[in-house]
Each structure stands twice: as structure tokens, then as C-alpha cells.
């Protein structure tokens, strides 16, 4: 299985990092596209750059899955084309700037172009949006994207599993994203009574 993971410059770099871990742990190959601001936020929130975190995740999981880092400005990269087959795209975390760009269809970078391709090809596009509060402009853009087929999945983890740490909370959320992609997993907390 192959998934495109976009990481934008919203707060919540840990969501991007743990989503990558969730995918490679489940043997999913990843095409990774990071925005320049995502790199800046990763330094601030994770204390290391994205490539260092990717290397650490691959080392810790020992997964045979591949992670291919693609250039944000490279419109010639594979996910720019609908002919490139994959199983869907997540943008995690997803900034309101990226939401706005996808909603207009302007596709000024590879994250937005790959998302645009998912919408036109009717492939899963999951947006782990993070902003609060939301303006009417944000809400209108999110509505437009939802109507176009995107799944709006705010980076808002659940609490009913009583997670004991921030990382546990984030992993439960990432498990739900795997659910949406149809990937069997034990990361999601299953409510049962
Ligand atoms: C530390 C930091 C945290 C930010 N948090 C958010 C956020 O949670 N949500 C958001 O929409 N933008 C946030 N921003 C602003 C975005 O980074 C900014 O809009 C940028 O243009 C996003 O570009 P990108 O989507 O191409 O990464 C944050 C910026 C910084 C530096």
C-alpha cells in the first residue's frame, strides 16, 4: 500500500510525525511532502528537523516500508499526476493557508497539487486541520473541500480512552486516520460496552 503524506506549517508537528510512524508501522510506503514552514514548526515543537525525525522513526520501527521525501516545489514529482497510483493522501497537520489554497484549486505547491489530484481522481483526501478559533473564511473553505470529497478530520484527539500522555492521545487519533484509509490497526481506541 502507498499513501501520500503532506505536512504543513500548522502547529501539531507531532501529528505529522506520529502519522508517519503509524503508516510505516503498518507497512505502508509513504511519499512525504513537507512545506518550508512545517520544517520551521518541527524545529520549534519536536526539537529536530523532519528528516532527522523520519530517520529516527524508521530506525525505531525497523519497518521495511519506504519513505520517499519529495520536494515541495517539484511539480514533476509523481503525485502531481493522476496516472500515479496510490491509496490516498493525508495532510497532517493541515494549516488554514493550505486549506485555502486547495479550496481555490490554485495548486501552487506539490502538497496542494497532490491534494487537487486526489479530489479530481476521487481518491481519499484526509485533512488533519488545526486552527482555533475558525473564521467564516476557514469554515467556507472547509465546506467547499468537504463538498468536493475531502474528509475534514480536525486534529482533535478523543479523551474517552483516558490516554496517559500527549503521544498516546495523538496515536489514538492516528489510528482513526488508519481506520479511514481502511488499514487494520490497534492504534485506535475502540469504544465497546
Ligand atoms: C509556530 C507556528 C504555529 C502555527 N500554527 C498554525 C496553526 O495551528 N494553524 C494554522 O492554520 N496556521 C498556523 N501557523 C501559520 C502557518 O504556518 C502559515 O499560515 C503558513 O503560511 C502555512 O504555510 P503552509 O501551509 O504552506 O505550511 C503557525 C505558524 C507558526 C510559525
What does this structure look like?
By secondary structure, the chain is α/β, with parallel strands linked by helices. The chain has a single domain (2-181), classed as Rossmann fold, CATH 3.40.50. It is built from seven helices and six strands; from the N terminus they run βαβααββααβαβα. The chain has helices spanning 13-25, 36-46, 50-61, 96-104, 110-121, 136-147, 166-181, and strands at 2-7, 29-34, 67-70, 89-94, 125-129, 151-152. A six-stranded parallel sheet has the order 3-2-1-4-5-6, with helices on both faces. The longest helix is centred in the C-terminal third of the chain and has 16 residues, at 166-181. The relative contact order is 0.18. The chain binds flavin mononucleotide. Flavin mononucleotide is lined by residues 8-11, 35, 37-38, 40-41, 44, 95-98, 130-131. The site of flavin mononucleotide has 16 residues, from helix 2 and helix 4.
Keyword list:
single chain; 193 residues; alpha/beta; Rossmann fold; six-stranded parallel sheet; 7 helices; 6 strands; 44% helix; 15% strand; globular; binds flavin mononucleotide
CATH topology: Rossmann fold
Q: How many domains, in number, for the residues?
A: 1
Order of helices and strands: EHEHHEEHHEHEH
Question: Order of strands across the widest beta sheet?
Answer: 3-2-1-4-5-6
Low-confidence stretches: none
* Percent of residues in β-strands: 15-25%
- How far apart are the termini? 33 Å
Portion of residues within helices:
40-55%
Biggest sheet overview: 6 strands, parallel
Q: Could you tell me the radius of gyration in angstroms?
A: 16 Å
Number of helices: 7
Which distinct ligands sit in these coordinates?
flavin mononucleotide
Give the overall silhouette.
Answer: globular
For the record, the CATH architecture stands as: 3-Layer(aba) Sandwich
Q: What is the CATH homologous superfamily assignment?
A: Flavin prenyltransferase-like
Q: Would you count the extended β strands for me?
A: 6
Please, what is the average pLDDT? 97
Q: Output the CATH class name.
A: Alpha Beta
Task: Give the structural class.
Answer: alpha/beta
